[in-house]
Amino acid sequence: MARIKVFDTTLRDGEQSPGVNLNQLEKIEIAKQLERFGVDRMEAGFPASSQSEFESVKAIAKTIQNASVTGLARAKKSDIDCAWEALQYAKEPRLHIFLATSPIHMQHKLQMSPEKVIETACDMVAYAKEKFQQIEFSAEDASRSDLAFLAEITEKVIDAGATVINLPDTVGYTTPAEYGALFRYMKENVPNIHQVSLSAHCHDDLGMAVANTIAAIENGATQIEGTINGIGERAGNASLEEIAVALTIRNNVYPYHTNLVLNEIKRTSDLVSKLTGMVVPANKAVIGKNAFAHESGIHQDGMLKNASTYEIITPEMVGIHESDLVLGKHSGKHAFSNHVQSLGYTLSEEKLTEAFQAFKSLTDCKKEITDEDLFTLLTDVQTVSTRAPKYTLQSFQVQYGSTNIPTATIAMKNPNGEYLEMAGTGKGSVEAIYNTLEALMHEDIQLEDYRINSVGAGRDALAEVHIRLKVNGYTMNGRGSAQDVLEASAHAFINSVNRVFMQPNLKQKQHAQM
Ligand SMILES: CC(=O)SCCNC(=O)CCNC(=O)[C@H](O)C(C)(C)COP(=O)(O)OP(=O)(O)OC[C@H]1O[C@@H](n2cnc3c(N)ncnc32)[C@H](O)[C@@H]1OP(=O)(O)O
Ligand SMILES: CC(C)C(=O)C(=O)O
């Protein structure tokens, strides 16, 4: 069986999903989980795009030991230099350079002639080769490029030092037959193609990203690119978990295998969903809530007689287990620590103590603590910096009545440690809280999105709120969880504002304003 290398781009193309903005701690947490999931390569980000992105890529390069860490760069010396600064610490640093090759992109976006595109691509690959051994060149919008031109530029960038050639379907336009033919054409028409690996990178604009990726594999691609839960620019990227399971379940027709650890799918998917705030649709293949649910009588009858009647994938294969809760109000730190590890978390002593305290507080008001609750609690503890100066909620009270004006009274500490208290009103309880927080913070804040989910079932389930704020013109998402929906709403607001001021270039402004 041919081995297919998996290049995960959740942290780069996935983060390009509108509204998604991961901070360094969140990116590291996802990177560690991708390593556990068994990806061969992970694209940690686009180092030249911002200072915080640079810092995140550098931190991931230093952390990850069992996958190659890659960063994206335009065909520009400054992007390449910046990528090297961040990636040099990686065990196996890689560079991903892209330049568009389609007539539409060359003419309108780059405003370069085809000859100039070839020259720039070759010069920049040769320049990068002075630093990086492994260089992937992506011919952006390959699927809308002229085939002969694509073959010419490919041959030349291989000569210049590229080790992987990626042929992206950047706008999700191609079909499986066309995309397969593109890979065949390149194999047959680029004389030095045997020196490199061919990679597929598909977008889902027409809902064909996974099918197109598999067509590429059948026609010579030995690397596939995609994201967890299929997140990414516009309609997203090919969903890695769907490809991995399709190759496994239909191995009789697809004799290929990856190194992905299938029973890490659920955890990886949950983590990415939680940290990006992008909810997985219930009917999503492989990992949606309904993928293993059976509603109709005839199906349920079949399932009871033999699960294979209506299930081609077992929940266990993708890591979905019944919660085996053993923790409760009377559990001690040892049992808690064991359980934390079994859920895949490695916490420092300081974080473990913090998590244990949060767990104990939760047991005071919630009868049953499920693995889902713990996952939420631990993800919050692991990805929220305790050291950075920030706003912290001290207490709050909301008065609501159908004939009264909803009023919130909030006490908080600002990043300088000063205690602030204020009351404010709104048309509803959440608005009263948000108006009061905004007034306390003296910032210009607009609410762009607000969503609430329950973690698990039951009246005492945790509430999880995801929001997007515009703070002084800077858009940032945030999340908060608590047993009470209003408290979760307040935490989400404060989390979002704190994340804005954790951006290196904005910190100064915040402290100057205090
Ligand atoms: C298909 C993809 O997903 S590609 C990756 C897309 N991802 C992103 O864009 C996210 C990160 N991007 C950013 O933060 C910003 O766009 C930056 C920092 C990279 C650049 O910002 P700015 O300098 O303000 O430029 P802006 O984004 O407005 O325009 C892009 C410029 O790069 C040029 N460019 C685009 N692709 C390439 C390339 N592969 N190589 C060289 N130049 C390129 C464009 O032609 C344009 O140049 P111009 O300013 O001379 O017209
Ligand atoms: C940078 C390239 C690979 C890309 O993301 C695309 O073409 O979609």
TrEMBL record:
Domain of life: Bacteria
Domain Pyruvate carboxyltransferase, chain residue ranges per copy: 4-266
Presence of the UniProt keyword Amino-acid biosynthesis in the record: yes
PROSITE patterns (alphabetical): AIPM_HOMOCIT_SYNTH_1 (PS00815), AIPM_HOMOCIT_SYNTH_2 (PS00816), PYR_CT (PS50991)
Residues annotated for Mn(2+) binding in this entry: D13, H201, H203, N237
Entry EC number(s): 2.3.3.13
Reactions catalysed: 3-methyl-2-oxobutanoate + acetyl-CoA + H2O = (2S)-2-isopropylmalate + CoA + H(+)
Record Pfam families: HCS_D2, HMGL-like, LeuA_dimer
GO CC term (a single one): cytoplasm
Stated family: Belongs to the alpha-IPM synthase/homocitrate synthase family. LeuA type 1 subfamily.
Role: Catalyzes the condensation of the acetyl group of acetyl-CoA with 3-methyl-2-oxobutanoate (2-ketoisovalerate) to form 3-carboxy-3-hydroxy-4-methylpentanoate (2-isopropylmalate).
Name of this chain's protein: 2-isopropylmalate synthase
Species whose genome carries this gene: Pontibacillus litoralis JSM 072002
